[in-house]
Amino acid sequence: MDNAAALAQIRALAARVEALVERSQRLSDENRSLRHQQEQLIGERAQLLTKNEQARSRVEAMIVRLKSLEQHT
Question: Which UniProt keywords apply (predicted)?
Answer without folding.
Answer: Coiled coil
